[in-house]
Write a structure and sequence with these properties.
53% of the residues lie in helices and 13% in strands. It is built from 16 helices and nine strands. The longest helix has 27 residues, at 55-81. It is elongated, with a radius of gyration of 25 Å.
Length: 392
C-alpha cells in the first residue's frame, strides 16, 4: 500500500502552503522543511520541490499570498468604513489572524523579494495603506507624505508585533482591535486637523444643513477646488467606496472595477481637468474628471463617497465642469451611464441631461461606448446623455 494519500495536482499548492502555515505557526520559519511538508500534506517527498523548487521558493509563494491577503483586508476596511483608523485596525487584525504569513512577509532574507508575484502583491498593499495616509496627511510634498506613511505603518506594525510577542501591558485588555484604537488615539491626539481626524477614527465630519453658494464654495463643511497630487490616492479610495452600492443591485462587476491608476489620474490633474469636493479637513470626498469628446465637455467620471451622499456634491462638480466648458466655448456636457440605476441616468435627468438617440451620437462617443462594452459594462442597459450649456 502506498504511504501517501492520492491528491489532485490542482490542490497541491494549496495543501503544501497550508501545511507550511501550520509549521510556522507551531515552530517558526526555521523549522520548515520540504520533506516534513510533504508528510503533513500527504504527498510524495518530491512533490513540494517539484512545485516550488526549494524552501525559498515556497516561502516566496507564502509571502506573495500574505501581501495579497493584506491588501484585500486594507481595501475592504477602507471601502466599508471610509476611516483610516479602521485601515490600521485591519492591519492589526490581519497580522493576528495570519501570523505565519506575517512572520515571513517582513523577513525578505527568507524568500525571493524580487519575484514578480511578490512585488505586485507588495505594491497592492502599499497603495491600500498609503491611500489612507493621503486622506489624513497634512503633507503636500512627496517626501513628507512618505514620512507620514512610514509613521502610520510603524505604529500599527510595531503595535501588533508587541501584541503577538505578549510584550504589552496587561492593562490594555485582551481585545487587540480596541487596544489598537486606543493607542492610535493617544499618539495622534494633536492640534493638527488631519491627525485629530485620525484619532477620532474618521476622515471628516458629515452633517445636514449644508449651504451652497453661487461661486462654487460649499459653506461650513465642503469646498470645491482643483485636484492636487496628494488628492489622487484618495480619489481611488472614493471610487472604490462609490462602487459598493452597485453590489446591492446585482452589479458586482461594476463594484469590483479597478479605479483609474495614479498615472491616469495625474493626466487629468496636470491638464486642469480634475476637481474635488473636500470636507472640513480638506480631504476629498467627491471628484469629477472631464475631457473633450466630439467638441463637447465629456464627463469621464464623477463619484461621491456614499458617506457624503445627498449633499448636492455631484451637482456642484457638474456645474463646475459646465463653467470649464463655457470658458472653452463648448456647447454641451455629455456622459455615459447606466439607464436603470436610480443614482445614474434618472439622477442626471433631474440635472437637465437628456438621452441622445443613436443617430445623434458622434464618433468619439461611439468609441467610448465600444470601450465600455469591451470592459463588460454592456451587460446592463447604458445610455449617452447630454446637457446643453445655455449661452450667456
Amino acid at each position: 500500500m502506498p504511504t501517501t494519500r492520492p491528491y489532485h495536482h490542482g490542490h497541491l499548492r494549496r495543501e503544501v502552503l497550508a501545511a507550511a502555515v501550520e509549521v510556522i505557526t507551531e515552530s517558526g520559519p526555521a523549522a520548515l522543511s520540504l520533506r516534513d511538508l510533504a508528510r503533513r500534506a500527504g504527498v510524495s517527498h518530491a512533490a513540494p520541490a517539484y512545485h516550488f523548487g526549494d524552501k525559498p521558493g515556497l516561502l516566496t509563494a507564502l509571502a506573495a499570498e500574505g501581501y495579497d491577503s493584506l491588501a484585500d483586508a486594507l481595501e475592504t476596511a477602507a471601502t466599508r468604513t471610509g476611516q483610516f483608523l479602521e485601515v490600521g485596525v485591519a492591519y492589526v487584525r490581519f497580522a493576528i489572524d495570519h501570523r505565519a504569513h506575517f512572520e515571513v512577509m517582513f523577513r525578505p532574507e527568507l524568500y525571493r523579494a524580487d519575484d514578480p508575484a511578490v512585488r505586485a502583491a507588495v505594491a497592492r498593499a502599499d497603495v491600500a495603506l498609503y491611500e489612507g495616509v493621503g486622506a489624513v496627511s497634512d503633507e503636500k510634498s512627496e517626501a513628507g507624505a512618505q514620512l507620514d506613511g512610514v509613521a502610520a505603518w510603524s505604529l500599527v506594525h510595531g503595535f501588533v508585533t508587541l501584541w503577538l510577542n505578549g510584550a504589552l501591558p496587561l492593562e490594555l485588555g485582551d481585545d487587540p482591535e480596541a487596544a489598537a484604537r486606543a493607542v492610535a488615539g493617544v499618539l495622534f491626539r494633536t492640534p493638527t486637523r488631519h491627525h485629530s481626524d485620525l484619532a477620532m477614527g474618521h476622515i471628516g465630519p458629515v452633517g445636514l444643513g449644508t449651504v451652497v453658494d453661487p461661486v462654487g464654495m460649499v459653506r461650513n463643511r465642503y469646498m470645491l477646488r482643483e485636484a492636487t497630487r496628494r488628492d489622487l490616492p484618495v480619489l481611488r479610495a472614493v471610487e472604490r467606496a462609490a462602487g459598493v452600492p452597485f453590489r446591492d443591485v446585482g452589479m458586482a462587476l461594476v463594484a469590483d472595477d479597478e479605479p483609474l491608476s495614479l498615472e491616469e489620474l495625474s493626466v487629468f490633474k496636470d491638464d486642469g481637468r480634475a476637481w474635488v469636493v473636500t470636507d472640513a479637513s480638506d480631504v476629498a470626498v467627491a471628484y469629477l474628471l472631464v475631457e473633450i469628446v466630439d467638441d463637447a465637455a465629456h464627463i469621464e467620471q464623477v463619484s461621491v463617497h456614499p458617506a457624503h451622499a445627498r449633499q448636492r456634491l455631484g451637482q456642484q462638480l457638474i456645474d463646475r465642469a459646465e463653467a470649464w466648458a463655457r470658458e472653452r466655448c463648448l456647447a454641451s456636457l455629455t456622459l455615459t451611464t447606466f439607464a436603470e440605476v436610480p443614482w445614474n441616468a434618472p439622477y442626471y435627468a433631474r440635472l437637465g441631461f437628456e438621452v441622445l438617440s443613436e443617430s445623434t451620437i458622434g464618433p468619439g462617443l461611439r468609441r467610448v461606448c465600444r470601450e465600455e462594452a469591451d470592459h463588460g459594462l454592456a451587460r446592463w442597459p447604458r445610455v449617452v446623455m447630454r446637457r446643453i450649456i445655455p449661452t450667456s
